[in-house]
Amino acid sequence: MQFALHLTMDTLRVGVIGLQGDVFEHISALRRAFEDLGIKGEAVWVRRPPDLERIEGLVLPGGESTTISKLLSTFGLRDILKEMAGGGAPILGTCAGCVLLAREGDALVYKTRTELLALMDMSVDRNAFGPQRESFEANVDIEGLGSYPGVFIRAPLIKRVWGDCKAIGTFHGKMVLARQKNLLAASFHPELTDDTRFYRMFLGMF
Ligand code: GLN
Question: Which position among 26, 95, 98, 165 bears the catalytic label?
Answer without folding.
Answer: 95
